[in-house]
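ARCHIVE CARD
SHELF: 3
SLOT: left
DATA:
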Amino acid sequence: MTEKFPVSNAFQTFIQEAPEQQKIWMETAQKLGAASKLDGKTEELAYIAVLASARLEGGLPFHVKHAKSLGATRDEIIGAVLVGLPAVGNIVIQALPVALQAFDND
């Protein structure tokens, strides 16, 4: 999956240097995803909004590519990034170039 959806350098280091913790992390994330009542595309869009609001741009390329593969449009990606604008302010606009570059580059 990392080939189709590139992960950040930080996450790649996590995979390589702490494989046991990474395995536990992924198992937990998969269980949380399975428990979600959201469809996959909506969940990815929500996650993109959280990443933008938390200033975690490193995770955006992976999740934007995944959202796109689930049918998300460019406008939906922009909307997801900007949804936090009223709550957290213009910090979310820093995520726009990263998200759009990931969406536009196949």
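SLOT: right
DATA:
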Amino acid sequence: MRYIDTNVILRFLTNENPDEKLINFFKRLKSGETEVKCIDMVFFQTIFVLNSFYKIEKKEIIKAMRKLLGFKGLKIKDKQTVDRALDFWEKHTDDIIDCYIAACMEKEGESEIYNLDKKIDRLGVKRVDPRTTISNS
């Protein structure tokens, strides 16, 4: 199975230089006629670029990315955790990667994270400052 890169997804989502062949490719992905692997990094890089470069509103990004998650041919290792990250991001102002970390922790039943940024506390995880856990031995 082939992998998909961020630039392909961005071209489709932004409709930059519309291309009928690309639109048909995504129609086949939606139906499952074509299958591709999408690694988490590509999914989240797409979100980052849509937000930072294209300045698309978070609400619209979440809507588009959830639509993509529903494509039968788009194979992501753990769609549920990725979708949960979108839930966190929808409700909080935190960075999408922090939201993904919180979703992974939730799935694995973990509650503590070494982190220096207090804002992650809003995601329901317990932040541990690594500087406070250093022993004198």
